[in-house]
Prior knowledge:
The protein is of the alpha/beta class. The protein has nine helices and ten strands. The protein has two domains: 1-81 and 156-242, 3-Layer(aba) Sandwich (Rossmann fold); 88-155, no CATH class. The strands form two sheets. A six-stranded mixed β-sheet has the order 6-7-8-3-9-10, sandwiched between helices.
Amino acid sequence: MAAPLLETRDLSIHFGGVQAVRNINFALAEGELRCLIGPNGAGKSTFFKIVTGQLQPSRGAVLFRGRDISHAQAHRIARLGIGIKTQVPSVFDGLSVRENIWLSARRVHSGRRANLMVDEMLERLGLTGAAQRLVGQLAHGQRQWVELGIVLSTDPQLILLDEPAAGMTHEEVLTTADLVREINRNKALIVVEHDMQFIRMIAKQVTVFNQGAVLVEDAVENIMRNPLVRDIYLGKQVPAGC
Length: 242
């Protein structure tokens, strides 16, 4: 069996007397797309912050392609090939769409290659027509796609998406699902999301967090039917007949 792309072993972190993440054992294969769900405060965002070096674990390990990155600095983890798109877009509102993506691409590519990468990203994300617009003037969905382009332009092998469909219109959600599936053709993703319809569009395997620990991992359809998951998280959000 091939080694996981990302693995955590007994991963834990506490803040004072509060254990935000406890004994997380998680493995993601090369090229896999995994969704993380769970109620607010379940530890999903904290898990992301540990994986990307924004927080240091109190105990346990994070391995990326077998390399221990548990206490590596965030910029070193990014250079190894892990990118993250946060829930609130981290963009420069006073710069154009093209400039935002170019600044990111230029960090890892030569000038000519960066320009080609930007053109590719704009086309891929459907933003070519908005290339010269200031990001601060864009609709919410477009701003989300700009940040996705910023992350993709550094060519990471693992992308973490924190609620990519939050606040989007129905059409924007459909477009974002298409983008995620297209990205997954050659990159691995971990997606935190609350929109269960969006999850059904993109997911095969789902990991459920609850109270800082992994509650269950299973195929998406089994998760939808799991009465324990319904009780702690899904509730009335699950359509009848699921």
